């Protein structure tokens, strides 16, 4: 028998006797780790040296100066950039190429805050975005949902509400997210109302609003004015929009009009190039990152032209592709490295960053799902990302939101609270006295140091099975996916709606009803 | 529909048309990543500042100076440390406590090489251990094996050979390991002969020898003399022993005699405290790391007293425990952080490090298995570990070696080849021309840059399913564990024994036969 094994067995045997009575309680209880948002206690993982970073920045500048960005269907955005010094070239009646002198966009971004607060309706749950703050939010944008019972199907408003409730029930997320899944049973031109209302009603955390049309962005913000009061909204960030560039190097009019709506209202916006390497960005990661920086900077800069000081978040979503099938791949090593570099670039810009998440292409909550997720998610927490959308539920290359994966991911988010806390080094944690107390060859179960630390020393997963094989086998030999399946049902059953002022609730419902009555259903 | 999703779909659709014909081939082919060992291309992830590291080192020194290490049943080791300046205190007739002045052990370690070569019988597969080199080896020491067909049972020599063959078949491991599983169908006092022979016969990579008794260590080395020639073995490292301290703060006689046997022969040795926090080390990670450093340094130092310059590897195996059940837990965040610190400490000592691996407590190759594995394994590759034992197969808290997990882990090891390569930043990879070639709004599928890089840009997993859901579903909707189950059988079927000089083979078999005939079977 290997020595390692023997030691483990001895330790396990010894531990049965001792202090077990003192150590009970439900799994997954690490209340000392619960926070409205994480404050990073570990350094970032800096991959590249200053020279390489400067080369990437110079390439981003060169892209903007020599290739330029194409804008579509939004003359006001073109006017703003022209006034700021951009070189506008008319392509068609409603599309323009704009080139930017090196450094111009960086200058515009100087008014963007390095860190800001997004207020939640429960003030104890407001989050900071930027600096050492880290915020986890659920996945975003899947048309399908899946669970082990019913398989894969289109998402509905019931699924949408369920995921908000599951998020609200987890202490390891900090933000309610946005389009957690598409509620495809509601008309496209009306579903934003139900989504925003559901976030407000079933969660007391901060959330994202609609961006799929300028009027839907306005509705989202208007509902916040009902909730928070118009004056408060004018002076504080209470909602954010998550905007995608149309890579490579295009910003369409729906996007720029939406960005302007959020910025005009003083609200936050996230500026995301979704870069599928080889398709809409170069296959090589240095090039994808340079392009990402160029696109996200320009998109962020628009906010500062509309309202200097408006909160804007640099963002990156790097993915790779299967070069055999052309399918996008997620959770692979190259994008994880690219995310680490994006963290460095965001810090050099002194801007908050959204980056990576629990990505996977798996179609089940299986080993592949969590291996890929970890590759991606570790890069998020190590790169210094401030807002991690897609922290829970992501499967099927973002086409499906999984109930079981959501549970697994939130548990992982808990573990990452412990990870981001880091290692404390002081006389107590160095624990010389613990070893000296009994000396060589004696276990430490009952030392004063162990008694003092046993409740808080280690992350205590609610999902992992750490039992001996025999116990696990006697209890049915259940895998992680099956445990997660039970768990999400338990959590939904135990969910409690956070209190909401009835007057505000009524006003919100009235607003929705009026809006819905004002237009026929549209499904595009 | 979310913009992200829409973009992914468009990209997917477009990619079907283009250049698919040019992009075929079996999965998992990244021949450009194949190497006999990895040379790290990314920086290490340094968690603590110099002050904290100095505090940990001072605590390790204080442990050695004030508490000391207990030695048992090996007067020669006591004599060596006494002669070197250790303060020996007789505890019983065959146990001693030795205390070491601060700095004494570090001084002794100055003759230990920072980096050395372990020769494989196939010279193209020799590995470097130390510096920027990274070597992956299979898991070590499980009494049980498991697969999805037959479940969990005691390991046999057939399993042992199977795992050697699976390792040899994977380009993503570099070393054949040691006691991959216990061949429990062979007498304890004879199985080391079959294990060493199997490594030599079924693999052409470097491997670990026996450490369970001094004479078994000697036999292991003697078999290498038959294989490599006695003179070569005297001047080169061709085998290593993996030794465990008996934590806390004990080195037993079997261990120290074994260490002396390997060192005397000029062979390598790994010096591992297996620290189950709260049981055999403090619950707080700073204390566990200080103890780990103290124990491993003393164990390493013995080699230098026996033969200055003998290769010795500092090591750490940090784990946590469930504070509710007392069960060991693996793949949790605190030990991952501790591993990052061990990397820093090893570099300050200028010694090679063995650290972490694909640890898990799961009893199945499920989501938990790979989530925990990743938490642990990422710390190994990020901390600068040079030799990563337990890189493949580890399940069930190291009690079981899993066929399916072995396949998943080796595929992950491949991904880590890409990760450790890092990001190249130069004019070609910055890819300005690729974006300029077609301009905004045009995909990059057929750019010259894409054509030049598509074969090597991304890690191409042999195990992950990255297909669209519909294709995956049509093909049976198979999970990662089931795919791994098919894969290990395919790999065993395709395995080819590397050639071995028939004269040497005969001599090895003769040695084994003589040894086996010289003693009755013993089962302890």
Automatic annotation (TrEMBL), chains A, B:
Supply the source organism's classification: Bacteria, Pseudomonadati, Pseudomonadota, Alphaproteobacteria, Rhodobacterales
GO MF entry, a single one: methyltransferase activity
Q: Which family does it belong to?
A: Belongs to the trimethylamine methyltransferase family.
Q: Does the keyword Glycoprotein apply?
A: no
> By its UniProt entry, which Pfam families does this protein fall under?
MTTB
- Name the InterPro entries for this protein: MttB-like_sf, MTTB_MeTrfase
Q: Indicate whether Cell membrane appears among the record's keywords.
A: no
Which key words are in the record?
Methyltransferase, Transferase
Which organism was this protein described from?
Aliiroseovarius sediminilitoris
According to the record, the segments passing through the membrane are none
Q: What class of enzyme is it?
A: transferase
- Gene3D superfamilies linked: Trimethylamine methyltransferase-like
Question: Which parts of this chain are annotated as the region Disordered?
Answer: 1-34
Name a single GO biological process.
methanogenesis
Q: What is this protein called?
A: Methyltransferase
The EC code for this enzyme is 2.1.1.-
């Amino acid at each position: 028998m290997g020595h390692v094994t023997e030691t483990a067995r001895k330790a396990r045997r010894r531990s049965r006797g001792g202090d077990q009575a003192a150590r009970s309680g439900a799994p997954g209880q690490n209340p000392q780790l619960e926070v409205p948002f994480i404050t990073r206690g570990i350094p970032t993982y800096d991959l590249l040296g200053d020279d390489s970073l400067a080369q990437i920045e110079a390439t981003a500048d060169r892209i903007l100066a020599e290739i330029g960005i194409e804008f579509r269907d939004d003359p006001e955005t073109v006017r703003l950039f022209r006034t700021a010094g951009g070189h506008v070239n008319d392509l068609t009646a409603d599309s323009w190429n704009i080139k930017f002198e090196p450094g111009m966009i960086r200058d515009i971004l100087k008014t963007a805050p390095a860190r800001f607060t997004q207020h939640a309706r429960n003030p104890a749950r407001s989050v900071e975005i930027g600096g050492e703050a880290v915020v986890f939010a659920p996945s975003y944008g899947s048309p399908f949902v899946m669970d082990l019972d019913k398989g894969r199907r289109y998402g509905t408003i019931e699924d949408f509400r369920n995921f908000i409730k599951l998020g609200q029930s987890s202490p390891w997320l900090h933000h309610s997210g946005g389009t957690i899944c598409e509620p495809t049973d509601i008309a496209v031109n009306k579903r934003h109302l139900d989504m925003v209302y559901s976030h407000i009603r079933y969660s007391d955390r901060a959330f994202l609003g609609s961006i799929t049309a300028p009027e839907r962005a306005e509705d989202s913000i208007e509902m916040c004015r009902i909730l928070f009061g118009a004056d408060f909204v004018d002076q504080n960030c209470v909602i954010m929009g998550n905007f995608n560039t149309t890579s490579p190097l295009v910003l369409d009019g729906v996007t720029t009009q939406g960005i302007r709506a959020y910025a005009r209202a003083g609200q936050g916006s996230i500026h995301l190039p979704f870069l599928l390497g080889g398709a809409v960005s170069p296959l090589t990661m240095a090039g994808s990152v340079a392009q990402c920086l160029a696109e996200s900077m320009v998109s962020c800069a628009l906010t500062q032209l509309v309202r200097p000081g408006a909160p804007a978040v640099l963002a990156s979503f790097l993915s790779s592709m299967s070069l055999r099938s052309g399918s996008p791949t997620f959770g692979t090593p190259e994008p994880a490295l690219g995310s680490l570099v994006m963290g460095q670039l965001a810090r050099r810009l002194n801007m908050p960053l959204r980056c990576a998440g629990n990505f996977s292409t798996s179609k089940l909550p299986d080993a592949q799902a969590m291996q890929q997720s970890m590759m991606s998610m570790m890069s998020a927490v190590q790169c210094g990302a401030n807002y991690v959308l897609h922290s829970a539920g992501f499967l099927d290359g973002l086409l499906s939101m999984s109930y079981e994966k959501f549970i697994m991911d939130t548990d992982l988010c808990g573990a990452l609270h412990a990870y981001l806390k880091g290692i404390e080094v002081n006389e107590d944690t160095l624990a010389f006295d613990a070893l000296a107390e009994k000396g060589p060859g004696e276990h430490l179960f009952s030392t004063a140091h162990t008694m003092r630390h046993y409740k808080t020393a280690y992350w205590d997963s609610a999902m992992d099975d750490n039992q001996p094989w025999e116990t696990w086998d006697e209890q049915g030999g259940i895998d992680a996916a099956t445990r997660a399946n039970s768990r999400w049902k338990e959590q939904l059953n135990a969910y409690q709606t956070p209190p909401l002022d009835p007057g505000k609730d009524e006003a919100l419902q009235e607003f929705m009803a009026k809006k819905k009555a004002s237009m026929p259903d549209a499904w595009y």
